[in-house]
Automatic annotation (TrEMBL):
Function: 3'-5' exoribonuclease that releases 5'-nucleoside monophosphates and is involved in maturation of structured RNAs.
GO molecular function, one term: RNA binding
Catalytic activity: Exonucleolytic cleavage in the 3'- to 5'-direction to yield nucleoside 5'-phosphates
GO BP term, pick one: mRNA catabolic process
Gene name of the record: rnr
InterPro entries for the chain: CSD (IPR011129), CSD2 (IPR040476), NA-bd_OB-fold (IPR012340), RNase_B_OB_dom (IPR013223), RNase_II/R (IPR001900), RNase_II/RNase_R (IPR004476), RNase_R (IPR011805), RNR_Ribonuclease (IPR050180)
Annotated localization: Cytoplasm
Pfam families reported for this sequence: CSD2, OB_RNB, RNB, S1
The species this protein was found in: Eisenbergiella porci
Domain of life: Bacteria
Family of the protein in this entry: Belongs to the RNR ribonuclease family. RNase R subfamily.
Name of protein: Ribonuclease R
Residue ranges occupied by any S1 motif domain in the UniProt entry: 627-707
């Protein structure tokens, strides 16, 4: 049958289904109505299958065909280990819920077409996968298990609902316990339970040092080494700033400036300077001019865009740019000339920027400072530190004062500042966790944070009013339904907040957090407030940053480790040089939407990988503390149990079946677990003694139980955290 005849017959089928009198029919009934000859039935069946795959018709569970009831939507499928899944649609607030019998062969991260179904699962709209447009995963990382004549791979990713079958001849010699990368050769779909694959790489045995982290690197498809062409370009960038490099730049080498970073930081991409000008302060934020060395569309640039961001795993950093650049000519090393983009701001006693200048500059850092050292000077007036940096102490004190003024101004306008505990995991040489140390913000870390935020806002506002193409960092207003649920919940504690019909001002959330500070319910309400908010992202439209209560915001201060910063540095320099003409404007208008979208996606990937490695090492750490008792905080309440976070940020689950003395049910509205007979309730934010029952690094799970009352609290270390899941 020719293509024209096929299309003609498709149109006839569609025409029949569009008739007002048409009722859904089976294939055989359709063939009879359309007078299809017996010898043409296979071709007719193929036509129906093509129309189904194109989304032009649908088939119900009884095998009856009809036109789709509504327009099909396209999105990305996320599977769940229990067989159901979700589809994320661009521009849609809530993911769609896909019941297990409506997955129709979709695999994790596939791009799919879906049809909305009547009914909801909880708060979510239900849908059915109609067509798989593109596969999202071609390979999976997991643990190989050998059977007599075949093997199978248990995926590391808990979202994948089934193991992957591997025939013996495709196992590449893997043995039970091997960590492998398996390429999927058959996704199985609805025809069989498990997909099939072949082993393409053996990472090592599950107990070999470093294999656990490498498995996560492979699972998230994180890049490792740089291609040779990229490394060659990085090596050719030079190691010193030349006279030609300095030409036409603002010379700020006589200005006293410092870098303030962590002790182990090597890529120093921001420096700060401060001078008094009467009642005002001249604050300089100087950022490494990475774009001078990474030219647009070069091999370096394409690789940086592909990576999107540096990824900070527990035992390694996967950089966006090669170390020859990030630790070399682009690092603002003490005593060395460096090229920079400087945001020079005049700030008054109210913390307002009353004047500013953005310029290409050449700088020379006077001292490389650490957060610890500066905090000792400012918080403890440590005699030894003060003597070592005597000439800088007055500047640091001025910086601390200006930081407090800027922070207070930001607080007054309604910026929300969450202070949840973070941790640093200390590993031995073999990669085993020795200690989990809490990481606390101090005066020095807050100082740098305040100055960087101010520079980011100043640059964003400048380019917004120039109306040039730009990449902004935006944070949308919370979903009103979630805010209203939060408002109802806090009424139980005697708190109220003003919520408008269409939006809420961030100041209302900030006021709420101020009210609960120091109260027993602070952790509970802070977590629920955070969960009511959306994720920040990169966009080409300046829609404001809700969390910072800022109309204008961008990421300008870290071009070594974030691609959006590098991208806007190019735009800034072209505008400063008068080269942002009609052609270049059109060029940026064309490329920036994809840059913003891709950067947001890669940021999410990096965040997830970082969380997974932290969870892995925290679980491994707790394997050494099974049987010990800790006091933690209930950080999450779900239908299946209580998540408890220990002081060191380790989190584990007390399963609902392990709660003694009653049958407990989950009260979603109150975010608590309540006993049916006793009425005893376990609430989010409540302190709870727990005993470590089980920890398994391979499944990354930690189980707690409630100890007997006569057991006291152990002095050992431990910790856990999360929220109302």
């Amino acid at each position: 049958m020719t293509g024209n005849k096929t299309e003609a017959r498709k149109l006839k089928v569609l025409g029949l289904m569009e008739e007002p009198s048409y009722v859904p029919m089976r294939e055989k009934e359709l063939a009879c109505i359309m007078l299809v000859e017996p010898e043409d039935r296979p071709e007719f069946k193929r036509i129906l299958q093509e129309l189904l795959s194109e989304g032009k018709i649908q088939i119900n569970k009884r095998g009856r065909y009809s036109k789709p009831e509504q327009q099909l939507l396209t999105g990305v499928f996320t599977s769940h280990q229990k067989g159901f899944g979700f589809v994320q649609i661009d521009g849609r607030e809530e993911d769609l819920y896909i019941p297990e019998d409506c997955v129709n062969g979709a695999y994790h991260l596939d791009t799919v077409e879906v049809r909305l179904l009547p009914g909801q699962h909880g708060q979510r709209q239900e849908a059915e996968v109609c067509r798989i447009i593109a596969r999202g995963m071609s390979s999976v990382v997991g643990t190989y298990q050998k059977s007599r004549s075949f093997g199978f791979v248990i995926p590391d990713n808990s979202k994948l609902p089934s193991d992957i079958f591997v025939s013996q001849e495709r196992s590449k010699g893997a043995v039970s316990g091997s960590k492998v990368v398996v390429e999927i050769t058959d996704y199985g779909g609805s025809r069989r339970k498990s997909p099939e694959g072949k082993v393409v790489e053996i990472l090592g045995h599950i107990n070999d040092p470093g294999v656990d982290i490498m498995s996560i690197v492979r699972s998230f498809d994180l890049p490792e080494g740089f291609p040779e062409k990229v490394m060659n370009q990085a090596q050719r960038c030079g190691t010193e700033v030349t006279e030609a490099d300095r030409a036409g730049r603002l010379d700020l080498r006589e200005l006293t400036m410092v870098t303030i970073d962590g002790e182990d930081a090597k890529d120093l991409d921001d420096a700060v300077s401060l001078e008094r000008d009467g009642e005002n302060y001249c604050l300089g934020v100087h950022i490494a001019d990475v774009s001078n060395y990474v030219q647009e569309n070069s091999a370096l640039d394409r690789e940086a865009l592909k990576r999107g961001t540096s990824v900070y795993l527990v035992d390694r950093v996967i950089p966006m740019l090669p170390h020859a650049l990030s630790n070399g000519i682009c690092s603002l090393n003490e005593g060395e000339d460096r090229l920079a983009l400087s945001c020079l701001m005049t700030v008054n006693h109210k913390g307002e920027v009353v004047d500013y200048r953005i310029a290409e500059s050449v700088i020379r850092v006077d001292r490389r400072m650490t957060y610890t050292s500066v905090a000792k000077i400012l918080e403890k007036e440590d005699p030894e530190e003060c003597a070592a940096y005597e000439e800088l102490v007055p500047i640091f004190r001025d910086m601390a004062y200006l930081s407090s003024v800027i922070r207070e101004r930001r607080r007054r306008r309604g910026a929300i500042d969450f202070e949840f505990p973070e941790s640093k995991i200390i590993l031995d040489q073999s990669g085993h966790p020795l200690e989990i140390k809490p990481y606390e913000r101090n005066t020095a870390t807050k100082l740098i944070e305040d100055f960087m935020l101010l520079a980011n806002e100043t640059v964003a506002q400048h380019f917004y009013w120039l109306q040039t193409p730009f990449v902004y960092r935006t944070h949308d207003n919370p979903d009103l339904e979630k805010v209203h649920r939060l408002s109802l919940f806090i009424n139980n504690f005697g708190y109220t907040m003003k919520t408008g019909q269409e939006e809420i001002h961030p100041k209302e959330l900030q006021k709420l957090l101020d009210k609960v500070e120091g109260t027993p319910e602070e952790a509970l309400i802070s977590r629920l407030t955070l969960r009511s908010m959306k994720q920040a992202k990169y966009t080409t439209e300046c829609t404001g940053h809700f969390g910072l209560a800022s109309q204008y915001y961008c990421h300008f201060t870290s071009p070594i480790r974030r691609y959006p910063d590098l991208q806007i540095h190019r735009i800034i320099k072209e505008q400063l040089r008068g080269r942002l003409d009609e052609d270049r404007t059109a060029h940026y208008q064309q490329i920036l939407p994809q840059v913003a979208k891709q950067s947001s996606q890669l940021e999410r990937r990096a965040d997830e990988a970082e969380r997974e490695t932290d969870k892995l090492k925290k679980t491994e750490y707790m394997e050494q503390h099974v049987g010990e008792i800790y006091e933690g905080v209930i950080s999450g309440v779900t239908a299946w149990g209580l998540y408890v976070e220990l002081p060191n940020t380790v989190e584990g689950l007390v399963h609902v079946s392990m709660l003694p003395g009653d049958y407990y049910y989950y009260d979603e509205a109150a975010c608590e677990m309540r006993g049916t007979q006793t009425g005893k309730a376990y609430k989010l934010g409540e302190k709870l003694k727990v005993k470590v029952k089980f920890a398994d690094r391979f499944t990354r799970t930690i189980d707690f139980v409630l100890p007997h009352e006569e057991e006291g609290i152990d002095d050992g270390e431990g910790s856990t955290e999360t929220g109302c899941q």
